[in-house]
Amino acid sequence: MAKLNLKSITREAKKEIERSKNLKDLDFIFKKYLGKKSEVSQALRLFKDLSGKEKQKIGKEINTFKNSFKKEIKNKIERIKKEDNKVSGKKDWFDITIPGKKIESGHLHPLTMTKRRIEEIFQKMGFEIAQGSEIETAWYNFDALNIPTDHPARDAWNTLWLKEKDKNGEQFLLRTHTSPMQIHYMEKHNPPLRLIVPGKTFRREATDASHNFQFYQVEGLMVDKNVSIPHLKAVISNFFRLFFNKKVEVRLRPDFFPFTEPSFEISMSCLACGGKGCKVCKKTGWLEMGGSGMIHPNVLKACKLDPKKWQGWAFGFGWDRLAMMRYKIKEIRMFNAGNLRFLKQF
Ligand code: FA5
Questions:
Q1: What is the mean pLDDT of the chain?
Q2: DSSP label of 91
């Protein structure tokens, strides 16, 4: 390999860059020192014949030269552009022929799209949309909902308790369901009432494919003088039909919730198998979507409403599960996994 005098090459290149007057000169200089026919490029072509130690030494020197040479060129370009702008009176120098940068646009999260669809359907049925607080007191999350102090749902293992207390010394917690909003709303508004409450809920529990420690519920509430179970079933059936855009069977089975009497578990026919029985519905043909029932007289009383005058029903769906059915997702935890490959599908 011919001896490469990088010191003198560096000195020469620097002088030429200094003397250059425009971008064309600089282009010429660049090609002269780093172009295909330059001394440096020729030396690099013979590089493979060198011993390991020489390769290391010469490689390092060439890289140092290349970096400082490119830096000199870049600085000179800046200076020339500045001078050009001064002469032409322009502030910025830009090439209008350069193609524009593409702006990457995002899209709504599948759970947000689901929430919007739920709201749209209920709004069309004349329901108001209310927002609840994610932090509640035990009174609103349990007591006012007729859940007694010894109820297992209040156990430290099921509920996420906060250290802070409200001004009456009541300990705060992360709401375990959206039902507390029934109380807040009935305290502040006079019937007749028709509303839904979509929101985030929290439970201290082990996660699996259909359970998360943080999930979403949508509460429904209707209070009037003559509301009954057939209204509830009609509203829920209509909602499912519009939400899934097809006929869905709805099943109400007796259940227990302290704040409703009678209470029902709401299930829908499995869309994955058309009700025949599969892995998703655990071979039953039905999927549990939520709880419901007629509002318990004690709950109406806790909101200072006369149970002899007013009656109503309530329901609470897991809205992540609605999204799972809508988009045929078999794993609830995917929603919060921050996995772009998953999210970009929607
Ligand atoms: C309740 O939370 C009641 N508040 C529902 C209710 C409202 C009953 C009004 C009566 C009147 P439950 O714990 O069963 O009930 O939860 C309701 C729904 O939330 C479940 O059917 C399920 O769809 C969803 N859900 C419950 N726990 C989880 C969880 N860990 N992860 C995901 N979804 C859940």
A1: 90
A2: S
CATH classification number, 110-343, choose in 3.30.930.10, 2.60.40.10, 3.50.50.60, 3.30.1360.40: 3.30.930.10
pTM of the model: 0.72
Q: How close is the Cα of 203 to the center of ligand 1, in Å?
A: 10
Q: Reduced to 3 states, what is the DSSP secondary structure of residue 109?
A: coil
Q: Is the pLDDT of residue 67 over 90?
A: yes
Is residue 216 within a helix (H) or strand (E), and if so which, with residue range? strand 214-224
Ligand 1 pocket test, candidate residues 182, 214, 321, most atoms within 8 A of CB: 321
Domain ranges for the chain: 6-88, 110-343
Give CA–CA dist 165/152, Å, rounded.
22
What burial class does residue 232 get, using C-beta atoms within 10 Å of its C-beta: 0-12 exposed, 13-18 middle, 19+ buried?
A: buried
Q: What is the mean pLDDT of residues 14-29?
A: 93
Reference 10, options 58, 72, 64, 65; nearest CA is 65
Cβ-Cβ contacts under 8 Å for 58 (sequence gap 6 or more):
1, 4, 43, 47, 50
pLDDT at res. 98:
83
How does DSSP classify residue 3?
-
Tell me the per-residue pLDDT of 173-204, one tens digit each, with 9 for 90 and over. Answer: 999 999 999 999 999 999 999 999 999 999 99
Nearest CA to ligand 1 atom 25: 318
Distance 223 CA to ligand 1 centre (A): 21
Of 174, 173, 197, the residue nearest 185 (C-alpha): 197
- Rounded to 10 degrees, what is the CA torsion of 38, 41, 45, 50? 110
Cα–Cα distance, 117 to 215 (Å, whole number): 17
What pLDDT, on a 0 to 100 scale, did the predictor assign at position 90? 62
